[in-house]
Amino acid sequence: MNCRYLPIIPGVAISLVAIPATGADKSTDSARHPNIVYIMTDDHTAQMMSAYDTRNISTPNLDRIAADGVRFTNSFVANSLSGPSRACMLTGKHSHTNGFRSNETDVFDGSQPTFPKYLQRAGYQTALIGKWHLHTLPTGFDHWEIVPGQGDYYNPQFIEQTGDTIVRHGYLTNIITDQAIDWMERERDPRKPFCLLIHHKAIHRNWLADTCDLELYEDRTFDLPDNFYDKYEGRVAAQQQEMSIASAHDMDIAYDNKMLIPGENTRLRGSYENMLSRMDPEQLARWNAHYDPIIAEFREAGLSGDSLTEWKFQRYMRDYAKVVASLDRNVGRVLDYLRDNGLLDNTLVVYTSDQGFYMGEHGWFDKRFMYEESMRTPLVMMLPEGYEAKGDIGEMVQNIDYAPTFLDLAGVEVPSDMQGVSMLPLLKGEHPDEWRDCLYYHFHEYPAEHAVKRHYGVRDSRYKLIHFYNDIDEWELYDLQSDPTEMKNIYGQPGMEEVTARMMEKLRQAQIEYDDPVRFEYPIPEKYNNL
Fold it and tell me: Is residue 22 predicted with pLDDT exceeding 60?
């Protein structure tokens, strides 16, 4: 079945089809100030993007950005959680500074400075389409239309700038792309440079694929990660999380694996049924035609123990991969529009995710931990003319760096209170000697879904130091060179004293530099206070 971008349903609000190319943009302002198209997804991990990892799936359109531009091989987030990550991106500041630490308890202060506001003042048109997830309405945008909360994959609601909430018929990833292309074609002023944020719900849990993609990857058996059956020795916080694929509580057989068993009530069954209720009869018929035989086969098999866990893993991987396929296809549509309308040469195209995700590593799904799979995030850029970088960039960058980079690119002075640094020298092909040698991370959301303890830490090119705090007091230290999958906690081990002291000092300096007040309530151990 071919994917359709614009189902026509009488009486239902719909998005507009992209208009054919009409020629190159002639704007003199745009020629002086590069446009910015910032595409961000939710929970897309580097393991599931073939520019980074070819083991699992192919993402040819995302790979186009890397092939024609740059790929950051050490890209990280400051807080691996959707709302907080977005606040870091907008403000160029860590969560404790911008005030949005947790999805559960915080509301983003829209009156604070953000990079779209600075770009507006510099003459840019700014637009945001898609996911916002900051519990307030957007500010700093000439145009915006957002999904409420997490949004829905099928026939989603949109909050418009007028204050109206409407339903758009179709699949969300297609609709967001339709609306973004429509804004570029019909609403922007071609005499001005623009910054367009295209923010997708994909690839967020619970991974509902477009109906045209349901059959993808059904013949694929994915390899289990080597540490799929991790026992978490020496890692107390990892033992206490609730993000296990094996757990019926954590990965719900109905909500996550789409197995609606008659008479079998699960914790999240009702939420899944509500999602199905959003589908029109044709969508639901296609959905059921795909999943009903799988449900019947699953019931007949009567799986339990490791066999059930591995079956859930395969369903998870397939569903996730299908949602990536739709996302990749729609990124291709945006790239084609920019190319066909003569915009690519003067546009910075950025693709990234709000954080990474676990694809069975440690037996998990979700994110939150400072471990590599969730702290890392893909980051690729297609550069405007005049920027010489090509291929891989190895310097450590973080999502607090996006805001200063966009301002620097636009010729706007980077405010001194931004905690990130501009990546523009890296995009020019430079490798500054004074580039940072470690990153700071702080996860605040506990108690909450998935039960990951609060923690902070630092990571340099080889080692990572983490402190879990609040209702726990546990330290972890990893040698990423000898233990890249972070299976062996070497904190307190003989021979690690010098490394630990050095990382403690980096932690102290990072918390001072970023003015994190946690250092007063949870100071580093006494023996490291007089280094």
Answer: no
